[in-house]
Design brief:
Helix 4 packs antiparallel against helix 5. The model has no long low-confidence stretch (mean pLDDT 94). The longest helix is centred in the last third of the chain and has 25 residues. The protein starts with a helix and ends in a 9-residue tail after the last helix. It has 156 residues and is mostly helical.
């Protein structure tokens, strides 16, 4: 295990994690209608911490395997979409636009998982929970948008 390489990927994940601290859900999100299957608030930081560790381990494994340029470019795309979603949804309060970002996120996570899987089975498997979580997050984004049409950017 290359701890420096792992730390670099984890540092990249911290940019996405930081947006969660900068753009907290707040009163606006609490006031929105949400589906009854919405995960409890405490689960989000637990899930994301676990996923960021898995993503970093997977990327480190693939980087060490060599001939991983495309796979790591896809990893970069997914972390960029990941970083963008929170400011769009919670910062700008643009649920529809966030849904568009979510399509990019889901697609890039799925592509990264496949690319990683082809290089290193364990790295690919480490992305399975991430794809599952992003699938739930996308369904939640869609449901909240649908339940609250007209509620975009109405509160500061």
């Amino acid at each position: 295990m290359d701890w420096l390489l792992f730390a670099i990927f984890l540092f990249a994940c911290s940019a996405a994690a930081t947006t969660g601290a900068l753009f907290e859900p707040g009163a606006w999100y609490r006031s929105l209608a949400k589906p009854r299957w919405t995960p409890p608030n405490w689960l989000f930081p637990v899930a994301w911490t676990t996923l960021y560790i898995f993503m970093s381990l997977a990327a480190m494994r693939v980087a060490l395997a060599g001939d991983s340029g495309l796979a790591l470019a896809l990893w970069s795309a997914q972390i960029a979409f990941n970083t963008l979603w929170t400011p769009v949804f919670f910062g700008l309060k643009r649920m529809g636009a966030a849904l568009g970002v979510m399509v990019g996120l889901w697609s890039s996570v799925a592509a990264t998982m496949v690319a990683f899987w082809q290089i290193d089975l364990i790295a690919g498997l480490l992305f399975v929970p991430y794809l599952a979580w992003v699938t739930v997050a996308g369904a939640l984004n869609f449901s909240v948008w649908r339940l609250n049409r007209g509620g975009e950017a109405t509160a500061a």
